Amino acid sequence: MSTDTTASVSTHILDTSAGRPAEGVTVRLFARAGRQTAWQELGGSATDADGRCKDLPALPEGTTRVRLDFEVEPYFLKNPKKAEAQQDAPAHRDSGTGVFFPEVTVTFAVTAGEHYHVPLLLNPFGYSVYRGS
Question: Does the pLDDT at position 98 exceed 80?
Answer without folding.
Answer: no
